[in-house]
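Methods — Computational structure assignment.
A single polypeptide chain was analysed. Its primary sequence is given first, followed by the predicted tertiary structure written as structure tokens.
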Amino acid sequence: MLNSSQRQLLRVISESGPLSRTVLAASMGLSKAAMSGIARDLITLGILHETETVYGQGRPSILLDLHPEGAFFVGISLLENPAPMVLSDLNGKIIARENMPLSRDPDIIAGRIADALPKLLSGRRPGVAEKLSGLGVALSGFVDEKRANCVQSTLLGWRDVPLAKIIRQKTGIETFIENDAKAVAVSEKLFGIARDIQNFSVVSFGDGIGCAHFIRGKLYRGNHGGAGEIAHCTIEPNGSPCRCGKRGCLDTVASINAIKDMSKAAGLSCTSLTELEEKASAGNAVAIRILHRAGGALGLAIAHLIQFNDPGMILITHVEGNFDGLFGTAVRQAIEANVLPRYAGQTPIRTQRVDGDIWARGAASIAAHNFLIGPNPN
């Protein structure tokens, strides 16, 4: 178990990248001698290592950085069947993958994770199993502020399930669970394009819509872990029924599932956003109307995020297609039309097509975040 001073040093490096001992001491408010002692212990543990030497005025400086093999983490996504399971290093790089059948029974899930762990770790370099420092699980639903209990998941049919405890009892590994969008946001903050941004929001666009916020460099979860759930904000009053029990939620208009349902209801044989974009490009009025409606709804919701939080970036992640077509244009037009004129164009909107590893990688990042930052991320 790392102490607070060691975690403080790791946090500074994880946020800033490789630093010299002098810069680290200044950042931590410590003498260079005190900081060097902490760094020496972390080097002995194999968590830090010396990298390049920087030459400038005065004596050369040797930079310290996280050692990729200083700790390893397991991440599991419960959003797909089979459920992907990955092993990642301290730089967020995936070094092994396995799949396991998904179940809705928490005890069966925990047992399958325990059974799959030896195979995930087999053939790795000596010491990987000993340096396994945490396990993360990403799921669709509400997770409590301690990242221990699934408060509710419509996809899994759960309510108040202490999943982290169940898995920890089966595996003996410290376990954390998290909402899928929040897991992706943590991954982008630790290892991705948001590393240097203090305030940003991630909007995950797929079969459903997820959202998460970092404020002042920390994941904002709200009082009960539910912050960021734009999918179930009412976007069309008295609109279509939603699986959550309300009507007119963003999820019923702008998600991939909603777009497919609207296409089917209109008699279009489209099984993907890409196919619908192709029909719209060919002048199909129904396809154009559906893409405008869905893109406008998502853009309006993102405009609200900008008004609420004034973030330094909105990152839209998507698995299918791209944002170069009519849908993406409708999203951007709705954003610009619905923010205050002084904010129009001020918030960078970045889109990133992601692969199928995104959720499992995000889950592993939740465990890595606890290792680097500590048990209380707020």
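Note: The two ends are 20 Å apart (CA to CA).
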